[in-house]
Amino acid sequence: MSAAEQLQLFTVEEYLRDEVARETRHEYLVGTVHAMAGASRQHNRIVRQIESHLNAQFGKGPCEAWNSDVKLHIKTSLAEYFYYPDVMVGCDPADDHEYYLESPSILFEVLSPSTESIDRREKLLAYQTIPSLEHYVIVAQEERRVEWLQREGNSWKVLVLTRPEDRLEFPGQKASLTLAEIYEGIEFP
Predict the structure, then answer these.
(1) Structural element, H or E, at residue 93
(2) What residues make up the domain containing 150?
(3) Which of 56, 81, 89, 133 has its CA 20 to 30 A from that of 103?
(4) Domain with 61 in it: what CATH number?
């Protein structure tokens, strides 16, 4: 039997049904299902800082920050994906599925050695297809460094931030974050 014959493809319905019962999270990429690796404590601290600082600003407004327990669903004319971004901001009340969002306005990925190339290539390309997405933020965990991609019409502007006082402004969501807030309590080697 060839490798192609051994590959098992899943429908979206099968993936969603099975994912609720699994102990380990899996991402769905055009019919294939891939287990996700665990994250370091440092990674989780950074995610927690981003989510908590944003939710404190959002209050009871329409926006809410979600951690990586909520999936992102992307459907294009060619493919369908489910990812688990580290932090995702949704502001659309109509985007109300129980287990995933389809119209996020901000996505954060905290880099890990095992996922960095996926976050910078595969996810970047997939995320840029989301019409509602205004900001994609790539956060390093080994150093104070944030790459902030901002949609400007049909293109993306990239800013690299490294100073504690550097601020990410999200006017559409009425929120902002400094690098000092993102990296609060984090020590670098």
Answers:
(1) none
(2) 40-70+84-182
(3) 56
(4) 3.90.1570.10
